[in-house]
Amino acid sequence: MTQTRRSGIQVIDRLSMLLEILVRNGGTASLKALSAESGLHPSTAFRILSSAADNGLVGHIDGGQYSLGEKLMQWGCALQGGTHMPEIARPVMEWLRNKVEETVNLTLREGDEVVYIERATPRRMMRVEQVIGSHAPLHVTAVGKLMLGAGGRQVAMDYAARTGLPAYTQHTITTPGKLWTTVSRYHKQGYALDNEEAEIGVGCIGALIRNSAGAIVAGLSISAPIERRREQEWIPLIQEATRRITQRMAEAGLGKPKA
Q1: Domain 72-251, what architecture?
Q2: What is the CATH number that goes with domain 10-68?
Q3: Quick one: pLDDT band at residue 125, thresholds 50, 70, 90?
């Protein structure tokens, strides 16, 4: 059974224990695993996880897996990303920019949108530029779709109901079913695309940045004219970039589980 600090309030102690197990397992675990590692009866663990899910602290993924919830991801982004991420990510963004010769963006999640907080632009005159401080809905961006996929089906469905999935181009995803099919596939493969969904002529490749505990803290994307996008060449590069940023975060002491 996992040992955790006791608050004197049993349900809080148990929820804290379950969240710690999720973190140690990379952010996802089955009810069976959570019950076994915590020593809680499956029905007890299920009740606590269900209540936590109702409050956005836990997500429920198809296949019976539980994940860290949408609210925890947003809080992690706000606390770790806003202050430190541009400084930590900048050298890696420049490395990636030099490899692909296109614009590289760093984004955080703010509610139902991503906000652009840093960029590295190429010297070429014809390029795509996102204004630092600008926002975009989750469902029209590569990184945003990954964030929705990581939250699980209910999170994606709630987002669709809340926003109505407004169309920005004829390529924008506008139905809940297609949204979940798309974001769940992207979540499984570890990268996502924006196929002219936010702006005609612009294509993006995105990946998530996680801390050493596995929590999502930001997103990284490459934006380019759609005809210049090179998926097979750029996907391993952007994934390597996110690994390098995670390592830099660990070296800076961000995202390490407390003893």
Answers
A1: 2-Layer Sandwich (3.30)
A2: 1.10.10.10
A3: low
